[in-house]
Predict the 3D structure of the following.
Amino acid sequence: MSRAGVNEISPYLQTLKATWIEVGDIDSALDFFLHAMEYDLLDEGDQASEFSELFGHEASRPWALLSGPGERTGQVVIFAGNARAKHPGFPRGWDSIEVVTSELDEAARRIKAFPGVVEVIAPFNADFSEQNSNVHRSACWLMPWGNHVMLTQAVSQPDGRDFPSTAASVGRTFEMHLRTTEYERGRHLLLDILQMPRLMDVELTSGPFHFGWGLSDDHLIRMVFCKSGGLGTGGGAIELQGHPEEKLHPSVGTTRGSTPGGTALVTFTCNELDAVHSRITADGGFECTEIHIMNSGPFVGKRSFMMWCVEGAPLQLIDA
């Protein structure tokens, strides 16, 4: 169990800027984020050919950028497309957005009441003190478009850092869950290439994670929590989860030109974009695009490139 990253600064990735969620019904998804999550609509438009490599065609897609009130990071971009197919087990690749809340039980009532939402984990107190974290109250739901939304509220504080907080009912996404059978390859990307500091590094066969998700003790989960940003908790994290093959959705071989529906893409702001691009290409183990200036979408005008992580999960880096 490591929490050395509390005293480290991420040299490259600065903030978890946004999560892109592909939905079958954008009007319904917009209604969910505006009313169940009580988010603000910041911008909307049509995405042209900017992500044709990811989305597989040149046709534009409607999108909307939303955030918790006043939040400049951890935002959400919903865009029209397809919902993720339902299978037994955990979704593979990007999935859960973990969002900070100041009133979990009240927000949980709004979310659970939204049509098509399935409660996966009812609100409960999770004690991760033995893993060098804290006690926090969490709940989780499966959305109609196939990804999970998890709300979390601190009950206590971890040693050496402040747990994410918000003045709003529901605030920013502070952690993205990336599930894989390629755990060591994922660690190599996050720790060695991107040099993200570790907040936690654990192997679990029991405890609050297993209790919350209803998992048996033979389900080994390896997890490393890698942060962006500065000292303490930082500017948003990736929770890399290693699972046995049979516990995840079937692999769909996500590559350029395909998305699984649901959580499709995660965007981080980045210092030294050129240096990071060079590190990825020099390693040779992960495909990436060339650096370019975005010509459409919510981050138009930013220098950017996209890479494909474990399970083909797309990660976009943009200039900080």
About this structure: The first strand starts at residue 13 and ends at 23. The chain has a mean pLDDT of 91. Residues 26-36 form the longest helix (11 residues). The two ends are 31 Å apart (CA to CA).
